[in-house]
Design goal:
It contains 14 helices and 22 strands. With 493 residues, the chain is of the alpha+beta class. It binds flavin-adenine dinucleotide.
């Protein structure tokens, strides 16, 4: 007689599909502000195993986008700082270690504070902005390059000064308020109070210029609010807080099929799944939230997603031990001169592991024939640090898939978050674009969820109080960051 397998049926108010930063942050924020029953399912054995664990760990407050023609991505980053301070700092006390600081009497700007378990490293990121005598301009045959670099320089200095210098007071009563688009776009001053000649960075620039046979050229070195972030700490704290509010997590779940109701507005009836042990399961919910990153492709047609997805591959190099103790980024109008160096610190048992992440924003279209080339990263690193310093280290490279949406009208990469829903449907699709956007994504998704299902806001707990049992559960649930996994498997540490 054929065996009949019973299928478990489970019902929750909100089912989040995908345990990267987007899914976890949305579940956490919603749980903190409602009494809804919430479950997160993840197909891997652990949470945070894909893009949210493989990234460079750059906390973006806008510097990288300050030179762009369109200021929208810069504004998104600046607004992200406001959301972080208003919605996370006092609840995750100490751990979300960014707050307003009185720079001058009654004048406040955001500042990262030192804290051993803090999400953000208190070492700033220095932007190196070249001027017209820089190698990339001198070695170029195009006269327009000098004009371009000056346009970019003016934007970078002006926008960063308005956002984080002496132009905008972020404190308004008890609230943190970021500058608005018009303030940023209308400012024309060129004096940037954030210019800061860090000796280490100047020496790196000196070595870089010397590698082209030049004496030190002119650079603007700008101290930004950007920093490196400890993404595993962030994910684990968000998971601890979620567990404390009753969110359940299940890993190793495979979705076999979406059962859709196609009469009237498209709605999801159930997800047919298999558990980690291979047992069939039917998941039902009032609302389904898809936060599956690069895993969107199989669902696009059922969910009738309007945006066009673009996947690209980026490479990074991990150097251990760290090359220097400073985070720096070279901005350039020439792609091959882009370069980032980030310091990351992770604790493993008694050990503190400090390594460098090297990248250059280069990418290749996923599925295309383009080879991802790490030689430009190595070439820049040789120029800044010298061959001996670089190749004395343990070096590893790996690739990671970036998933973004592209607007239909302009084929530009937007680096922005994306939240799509249909008012009559019972699902929401989310792509954060950047890990750093998680506070905004969680808050905006929460606002959207309120329009899709009925629930009462509850007053959120004042402070996050982790207990050991929840902490241990979170450590088991969330994967170590990918570079740490690589280093742990090598014999070096
Ligand atoms: C090379 C690179 C460097 C980056 N550097 C930075 C940086 O320095 N700073 C920054 O802010 N951002 C950075 N980003 C962007 C950032 O990594 C992503 O925007 C962010 O992590 C995406 O989060 P996510 O939750 O959408 O996706 P993911 O982290 O990929 O999470 C999606 C989850 O969904 C799960 N999933 C997929 N399909 C299913 C399914 N069918 N069922 C259940 N679960 C499923 C996946 O297993 C995964 O765990 C970088 C990205 C790349 C590629």
């Amino acid at each position: 007689m054929p065996q009949i397998e019973a299928s478990q049926i489970e019902y929750v108010d909100v089912l989040v599909i995908g345990g990267g930063v987007a899914g976890i942050a949305i579940a956490e924020f919603l749980a903190r502000h409602s009494n809804l029953s919430i479950k997160v399912i993840e197909k891997s054995a652990q949470l945070g195993n894909l893009a949210s664990g493989k990234l460079e760990g750059w906390f973006h407050t806008g510097a990288l986008y300050s030179g762009q023609d369109d200021a929208q991505t810069f504004i998104n980053c600046v607004n992200g700082v406001e959301d972080l301070i208003n919605l996370y700092t006092s609840y995750f006390k100490g751990r979300c270690n960014i707050n307003l600081e009185e720079k001058q009497k009654d004048f406040f700007t955001p500042k990262i504070q030192t804290h051993p378990q803090g999400w953000f490293n208190d070492q700033p990121v220095y932007i190196i902005h070249p001027q017209t005598d820089a190698p990339e301009i001198q070695l170029s045959h195009l006269k327009s390059d000098a004009v371009q670099i000056n346009i970019q320089r003016n934007r970078v200095l002006g926008r960063l000064e308005v956002a984080y210098g002496k132009q905008h007071n972020w404190k308004n009563g008890n609230h943190c308020i970021a500058p608005i688009y018009a303030q940023i776009e209308n400012y024309e001053g060129l004096n940037c109070s954030l210019i800061d000649s860090s000796e280490t960075v100047r020496n790196l620039c000196r070595q870089f210029d010397a590698s082209y046979g030049m004496k030190l050229t002119n650079y603007d070195i700008i101290q930004t609010l950007d920093s490196s972030m400890n993404t595993s700490n962030i994910l684990r704290d968000l998971v601890v807080s979620s567990l404390a509010q009753g969110v359940t997590f299940e890993t190793g779940v495979t979705i076999d099929k979406l059962l859709m109701d196609r009469y009237g507005p498209i709605r999801i009836k159930s997800l047919l799944c298999h558990t980690e042990k291979g047992l069939p399961k039917r998941l039902k919910a009032k609302l389904f939230i898809f936060a599956v990153g690069e895993g969107f492709t199989p669902f696009l047609s059922d969910l009738q997603v309007r945006a066009r997805l673009k996947k690209s591959r980026s490479a990074m190099v991990v150097a251990y031990p760290a090359l220097v103790d400073t985070n720096f980024v070279r901005m350039s109008t020439k792609n091959r001169f882009h370069f980032n160096h980030f310091i990351q610190q992770r604790e493993q048992g008694e050990n503190k592991i400090i390594y460098s992440m090297l990248a250059d924003s280069g990418y290749a279209i996923d599925g295309g024939n383009d080879e991802l080339d790490i030689e430009p990263i190595l070439d820049s690193a040789e120029r800044y640090f010298g061959k001996n310093e670089l190749y004395n280290r343990q070096l590893f490279s790996y690739e990671c898939v970036k998933t973004e949406f592209i607007s239909e009208e302009e084929q530009k990469r937007r680096y922005s978050y994306w939240i799509e829903s249909n008012p009559q449907s019972n699902y929401l699709c989310v792509l954060p674009g950047k890990f750093s956007f998680f506070p905004t994504v969680a808050f905006q998704a929460y606002q959207r969820i309120k329009t899709l299902i009925d629930f009462d806001d509850c007053s959120p707990p004042v402070c996050f109080e982790p207990n050991n049992s929840l902490k241990q559960q979170a450590v088991a649930l969330v994967a170590d960051s990918y570079p740490l996994q690589i280093l742990s498997h090598s014999s070096s540490i």
